[in-house]
Amino acid sequence: MLQIQDIQANRDAIVARLAKRGKDFSALIDSAIEIDNKRRSTQVELDNVLAESNVISKQIGQLYAQCKQDEAEVLKAKTGLLKENAKQFDEALKIAEAELLEILYQIPNASGEAVPVGRSAEDNQVVHTYGEVPKLSQSLPHWELCEKYNLIDFELGVKITGAGFPVYRGKGARLQRALINWFLDEARDAGYEEIQPPILVNEASGIGTGQLPDKEGQMYYMPVDNLYAIPTAEVPITNIYRDVILKESDFPIKNCGYTPCFRREAGSYGKDVRGLNRLHQFDKVEIVHVSHPLESYEMLETMSSYVQGLLQKLGLHYRVLLLCGGDTGFASAMTYDMEVWSAAQERWLEVSSVSNFESFQANRLKLRFKNAEGKNELAHTLNGSALALPRIVASILENFQTPEGIIVPEVLRPYCGFDIIN
Question: Is the dihedral of CA 321, 322, 326, 327 positive or negative?
């Protein structure tokens, strides 16, 4: 959530940054400023009434002490009116604060300086490409390879739960587990503290990281307990720091965690979501950074390089996209997407997003630190997939297939216990 103080002080600059998303948010920004001005004036009125009431209360005490009861009773009647006025101002203040919050929740994060202007994925910029397109003697899509080698049973998942909930079997399950363990070990070696968080969160956690109220339609909700199944480990891990005041010496904070993730993906259909391309339940290792504001963009580049290093060790051909404003997530100021080439499907598959949220999440979380002057300042938060498994599995199966079987990347062999799937 953008800070209303920043909106008041830098209205034009924030409108310009938001315009990179391909939409005009000036009306919402001006509404926020108007309501905040109303809120501020109401606060002043309330403070004045309370101050006057306090002065009169002291005078009443003095009058009683001087046995001037009649004069004291006159002032008591006046304090009754002041209390009624204070009550009205307090109610008006709460209404203004709720109205302001409702508008601020509708405003996405302002795009970072380097983010290109654009409305859709077509306006994203390719900033790096690694490797070459694999030359295959056969090019079966992963869903056919899964059936051929009995790795993942999509129909059985439909029977047990529904579409988008596959069942991993045999070497398919072992490959999945190998990737999880390898990702976590790599993160540990890179200095990340491993977290095993809950996979259900409350409403406050969803609001804190920006999933609510923006994305409730994409989340699985349990109304009896008022809990949500997490769409990513970003939500519970980042919420560790909700209502926390850090020290500058705590930075950088680096956490990682493996969780299953749940996304309704309402309205998703067609060939682009076939097999592992888009699921309702999938596994992912997430990395989360909490950073000093002056260091967050350096951290973003570090995280991007780290994720690329994983893809390079797996031997996958990939590219890095700098997302344009219109394709950047609601809460993100700047995002890199990593896409792996699918040789069998002949298209790019997104396998990771690495984002800097600046203070957008921290403002919702009330995640602060004491700066060098001893004042509380909002921290910056970042996160990224390192990595999401379904499309990584799909890419490995498709890009490393041979007539003899699927070659397992060398770094995974100690974790899998086999070199080839046949």
Answer: positive
